[in-house]
Design brief:
about 50% helix, four-stranded antiparallel sheet, about 290 residues, alpha+beta
């Protein structure tokens, strides 16, 4: 390697090094503390704080556990108190530290971390346990940067499963309208998270079909027949051999006066289920079903 080539490589290397970002570069802020003519303070991302009066460095201190994000930070200086506050990147978490300028020294006082996302998630858990599906979803919606705080697809699946448990209990307690409402809230939320990026459904198809069938049934029992018809048609489309969905669909069609369409679904049900298990209403509504094998 000749001298010119070596010199060129060294120059390029030096330029590359000079362009590397400083990982803990300090940001400077005006800081008119008591007794200072041109006070300013510098803070690094790792929490190293230096106080200056003009160009003269007066004090330095390290604030333990302070994650300082200059892009979302505020620095206030009043009398002898210095307050640093910073929100973490892509999170709602805020770190705050209070320092005092006393006898020529910076002293670290209170430090605190405020994490509203964790509080909201705790509320979600509490509401889910209590069976308050709408309140749980509302708490989730209050979270900033949700993708950084929890798995949105798994949470949507949890909410749907829990809603199904709550709705089933309500129906058994003769509250079909309440059961339908709970499922409606859950499905409205779940519809945004049906398939995560990796392509794996958060709720297995068979399980989702069973839950949707029950939702359609609750809607029908609550007298919300057009909505029930829509849900149950989707179930039949996804699982043509699911006999109970055929029966539920037939019943909600019958309730709307759609006798011919109901008859077709009753016949499909009868074709799949042994006669001894038919409900009494079947032959009343579909006399021709008696000819089914």
């Amino acid at each position: 390697m000749n001298r010119l080539t070596l010199l060129a490589l060294l120059t390029l290397s030096t330029l590359a090094l000079s362009q590397q970002p400083e990982e803990d570069a300090a940001t400077s802020y005006p800081c008119p503390l008591q007794g200072l003519k041109a006070g300013r303070v510098t803070v690094t991302p790792s929490g190293a704080v230096e106080l200056f009066d003009g160009k003269k460095r007066l004090a330095s201190v390290s604030v333990p556990d302070l994650d300082f994000n200059a892009a979302k930070a505020s620095v206030t200086c009043e009398q002898t108190r210095l307050t640093l506050s910073s929100q973490l990147p892509y999170k709602a978490t805020t770190h705050t530290a209070e320092l005092t300028w006393v006898s020529g020294a910076l002293k670290v006082g209170k430090t605190r971390v405020d994490d509203p996302s964790s509080r909201a998630l705790a509320k979600v858990e509490k509401e889910l346990q209590a069976g308050n599906i709408g309140a749980a979803i509302e708490a989730l919606d209050s979270i900033s940067y949700p993708g950084q705080s929890y798995d949105q697809f798994e949470m949507a699946a949890r909410i749907l499963r829990r809603a199904h448990e709550v709705a089933t209990t309500r129906y058994k307690n003769r509250d079909a309208a309440g059961a339908a409402q709970v499922m409606e809230e859950a499905f409205e939320h779940f519809s945004n998270y049906t398939e995560p990026p990796e392509g794996t459904a958060p709720v297995p198809a068979a399980r989702l079909t069973a839950i949707r069938n029950d939702y359609g049934f609750f809607l029908s029992e609550a007298g919300r027949h057009p909505e029930a018809e829509k849900e149950l048609l989707e179930v039949v489309k996804a699982a043509p051999e699911r006999a109970v969905a055929r029966l539920n669909l037939a019943d909600t069609l019958w309730a709307q006066g759609k006798k011919a369409e109901a008859d077709a679904q009753y016949r499909e049900y009868a074709r799949r289920i042994p006669r001894k298990k038919w409900p009494a209403k079947l032959l009343e509504r579909c006399p021709g079903c008696g000819a089914a094998p």
